[in-house]
């Protein structure tokens, strides 16, 4: 006689953006089950599967990590079936789900970003990488700019997160929860955050594809902020652990390329 244990699916989510993480579900069959993944988000997601098998085998062997492309309705992960159908068999599973492709070993270190503001503008970089105020151990940039300044995409990508419903600010970390931010996913697996944007200041929505130079928001003074500015940071995501990275920019008329320095003014004439 055949017996099958109750299948229990446990999912552990670590949300780092507004897009929904990938999920796994199973469909039972006469001897075992088939596992599928869904990713309704706008960038790849990674699932790490953990199987508990009793007299059963997984058709994909020891493979545990699967990258689920954006917009996937139903992706076959594999099947579980009995090793010996005459004996008791069963299985359970759980999984972790991450935004992004956790199998990537690196990103495009040679990519040159556009400055995140419109042509003809000039702003001071008041805080640079590992800045003493709020950027300790963080590769992030703060441009002082008046509220309602046009913010443009520094690189092509797809919008992963939009928060612009906050209208509060203060110079302490207690106001971090009120940060308005747009996050954009890039083709090499990196993300960019454009933070402290104006209340109702987003010009894009979740899932929009943007081109560099496209207006995405108006700058503001929301969240953890002591004055109107734009916070810009790029990070590489590995299993929901973001690492902020240094990025090069086109400067002036675009013929110069380099890392930005704190307390310097930068113009964009391209």
What does this protein structure show overall?
The structure is a single chain. With 270 residues, the protein is an all-beta fold. The chain has 2 domains: 9-99, Immunoglobulin-like (Sandwich), CATH 2.60.40; 112-267, Glucose Permease (Domain IIA), CATH 2.70.70.10. 0% of the residues lie in helices and 50% in strands. It is built from no helices and 25 strands. It has strands at 9-13, 23-29, 32-39, 45-54, 56-58, 65-68, 72-82, 90-99, 112-113, 122-127, 140-144, 150-152, 157-163, 169-170, 181-185, 190-195, 197-202, 209-210, 215-219, 223-224, 229-238, 241-245, 248-251, 256-258, 265-267. Strands 10, 11, 13, 15, 16, 18, 21, 22 and 25 form a 9-stranded antiparallel β-sheet that branches. A hairpin with a 2-residue loop joins strand 2 (23-29) and strand 3.
Describe the secondary structure blueprint for this structure:
Layout: E1 9-13, E2 23-29, E3 32-39, E4 45-54, E5 56-58, E6 65-68, E7 72-82, E8 90-99, E9 112-113, E10 122-127, E11 140-144, E12 150-152, E13 157-163, E14 169-170, E15 181-185, E16 190-195, E17 197-202, E18 209-210, E19 215-219, E20 223-224, E21 229-238, E22 241-245, E23 248-251, E24 256-258, E25 265-267
Parallel strand pairs: 1-8, 9-23, 14-20
Antiparallel strand pairs: 2-3, 3-7, 4-6, 4-8, 5-7, 10-11, 10-25, 11-21, 12-19, 13-15, 13-18, 15-16, 16-21, 17-19, 21-22, 23-24
Low-confidence regions: 1-17
Largest sheet: 9 strands, antiparallel
Order of helices and strands: EEEEEEEEEEEEEEEEEEEEEEEEE
What portion of the residues fall into strands of 2 or more residues?
A: over 45%
